[in-house]
Each structure stands twice: as structure tokens, then as C-alpha cells.
Amino acid sequence: MTLTAANRKHLERRLLEERERLMRALARYHEESRGTLQEASGDVSAFRMHMADVGTDTADQEFDAANAARQTAELAAIDAALEQLYQRPEEYGRCQRGGEPIPFERLDVLPWARTCREHST
User: What residues contact 49, with CB distance under 8 A and at least 6 apart?
Assistant: First the structure.
């Protein structure tokens, strides 16, 4: 099924909404990561009372960094989808492996999808 103009407009709106959500989340991450480990954990003393506190803070920071990396990759995929939608609209919504149209239902859930479900693995 070929995407209609209404489908494309809806998917453009979804892409822009997801882009904005990710931009806000990444801005929050960068803002929080500027603080020191002490400030991020909420401790008022520079001296740690227990090694587990250090481990927990480190694990939290690693989790946040991994999440930010995933969000950055997702943002790049969204930007690529928007570029394709604006500059090569006939290619947007087509499987990059098989060439067939990606179902609207899949694009509605994941508007930056590059492949159909069959070729997604």
C-alpha cells in the first residue's frame, strides 16, 4: 500500500514529536551530567560513607550514558527519515532491503523504520 498525503503528514508529525522528545531528554542528560558525582547523587558530604554508594552512583551514570547513546542513535535515524521524507518522499516508507512498502501500522509505531518487519532482523 502506498502512503497517502494524509499518512505522510501524520508520520511527519510523529517524527517531529519523537525528535522533540529525544532532544528534551538529551538536553536533560547533558545538563545533569555537567554536575559532579556528588551533586548528582544528592550527597552533601564529599566523603563517601560506604563503597556501595560509589558503585550505585557509577552504575547509574553508566546506565544514563548508555541510554543517551541509544537516544542519540535514535535521533540520527529520525533525522535521516525526515530528510528522506522531505527530499526523496518516494523512497520514504519503502523497505531498504526488499523495496516493498512498509505497512502504515509499522510506520505509525516506528516512523523512522527503514525496513519492513520481515527484513528487520
Answer: none
